[in-house]
């Protein structure tokens, strides 16, 4: 059902209406970040076109819906990059296959994933195919890099823009892939898309940096200037500390935000839900004012470092300011 795509409600409605009112385009280009659900929506759209119920949606259980799910429907063709390239042969195979009359209905649909990966020959052939679309053929091209698609191709397609997935949706996908919920939520807050979030979780230092953030915050509250030793020994001495500083400060900011949410009684909005004990303990020791100021201090540090300020001095300055409260 189209209602399976709450994150892409507008897209789902648009496609549903075009089908319901029999106003299908010859070609669609789904554009949006990785993880936005373009492929899932494309498959659902194909099902809806062929579904035996013919009500603008996919029932999911009829013969056509099932064949498309298994990628066995004769009139639905998939093209995906092979070794990172879509070649002319793949476009030719498609044309050959679609030159026969439609087997089971008046439509034929092809879905090209990562259309930006077409090489030049494939692009030229594709362009011709889009210029003279055979009767009943619907093209669905997918891309997360619309800037890499030739304007001549774009001008032949109805462009459908997918919104970036929300942190909740990213976190859910990561959890389904086996990432611990606390880390998944933190990565989802920091990254812009599922791929980036997944990469974050795969870096060894991600979990370690989050633990360090919790410890540093604790030391700032409990152990006075010892927090300076913590930042030295546990962060600055690390290999490639400069490469990790952005992530470290993002996690630190997220931590302070969680403390503030706890303090405001908005526990449902807390990201590091698996760390409720230290959150509660630390939040009770800081006023809301101090938490807000603390977030400001972390942001200022982040900003300074993007302007190439000295890493060690900036972090020491940050720790001391956070301590003053
Ligand atoms: Zn069906």
Main-sheet strand order equals 2-3-4-1-5
Order of helices and strands: HEHHEHEHEHEHHHHHHHHH
Q: What is the radius of gyration?
A: 25 Å
Q: Terminal Cα separation, in Å?
A: 52 Å
Strand content: 5-15%
Ligands in the model, by name, code or SMILES, are: zinc ion
Q: Main sheet?
A: 5 strands, parallel
Total strands: the figure is 5
CATH class assignment of the largest domain = Alpha Beta
The total count of helices amounts to: 15
The general outline is: elongated
Can you lay out the helices and strands and say which pair or pack?
Blueprint: H1 9-20, E1 27-31, H2 38-50, H3 63-69, E2 76-79, H4 88-97, E3 108-112, H5 120-131, E4 137-143, H6 151-154, E5 158-161, H7 167-176, H8 181-190, H9 194-202, H10 205-222, H11 226-236, H12 241-263, H13 276-283, H14 288-306, H15 311-324
Parallel strand pairs: 1-4, 1-5, 2-3, 3-4
Helix pairs in contact: 1-2, 2-3, 4-5, 7-8, 8-9, 10-11, 10-12, 11-15, 12-13, 12-14, 14-15
Zinc ion binds at residues 51-53, 58-59, 62, 64-65.
Structural descriptors:
Rossmann fold; alpha/beta; binds zinc ion; 2 domains; Zinc Finger, Delta Prime, domain 3; 5-stranded parallel beta sheet; single chain
Can you walk through the features of this model?
It is a single chain. The protein contains 15 helices and five strands. Helix 5 links the parallel strand 3 and strand 4 (137-143). Strands 2-3-4-1-5 form a five-stranded parallel beta sheet, sandwiched between helices. The protein folds into two domains: 2-164, 3-Layer(aba) Sandwich (Rossmann fold), CATH 3.40.50; 203-324, Zinc Finger, Delta Prime, domain 3, CATH 1.20.272.10. It is α/β, with parallel strands linked by helices and 325 residues long. Helix 1 packs parallel to helix 2 and helix 8 (181-190) packs across helix 9 (194-202). The N and C termini lie far apart (52 Å). It is elongated. The site of zinc ion has 8 residues, from helix 3.
């Amino acid at each position: 059902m189209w209602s399976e795509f709450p994150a892409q409600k507008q897209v789902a409605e648009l496609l549903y209406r075009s089908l319901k009112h029999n106003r299908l385009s010859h070609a669609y280009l789904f554009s949006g970040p990785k993880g936005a659900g373009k492929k899932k929506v494309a498959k659902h759209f194909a099902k809806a076109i062929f579904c035996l119920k013919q009500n603008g949606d996919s029932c999911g259980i009829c013969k056509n819906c099932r064949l498309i799910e298994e990628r066995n429907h004769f009139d639905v063709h998939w093209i995906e990059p092979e070794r990172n390239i879509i070649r002319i042969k793949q476009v030719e195979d498609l044309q050959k296959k679609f030159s026969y009359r439609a087997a089971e209905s008046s439509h034929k649909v092809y879905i090209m994933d990562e259309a930006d990966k077409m090489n030049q020959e494939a692009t030229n052939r594709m362009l011709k195919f889009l210029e003279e679309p055979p009767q009943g053929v619907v093209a669905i091209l997918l891309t997360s890099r619309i800037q890499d698609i030739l304007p001549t191709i774009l001008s032949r397609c109805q462009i459908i823009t997918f919104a970036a997935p929300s942190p909740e949706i990213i976190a859910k996908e990561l959890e389904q892939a086996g990432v611990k919920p606390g880390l998944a939520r933190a990565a989802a807050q920091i990254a812009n898309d599922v791929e980036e979030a997944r990469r974050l979780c795969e870096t060894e230092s991600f979990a370690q940096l989050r633990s360090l953030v919790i410890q540093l915050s604790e030391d700032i509250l409990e152990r006075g200037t010892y927090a300076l030793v913590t930042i030295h020994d546990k962060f600055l001495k690390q290999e490639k500390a400069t490469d990790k500083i952005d992530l470290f400060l993002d996690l630190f900011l997220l931590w302070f935000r969680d403390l503030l949410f706890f303090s405001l009684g908005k526990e449902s909005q807390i990201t590091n839900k698996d760390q409720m004990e230290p959150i509660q303990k630390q939040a009770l020791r800081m006023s809301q004012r101090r938490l807000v100021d603390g977030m400001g201090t972390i942001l200022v540090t982040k900003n300074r470092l993007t302007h190439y300020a000295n890493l060690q001095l900036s972090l020491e300055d940050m720790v001391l300011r956070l301590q003053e409260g």
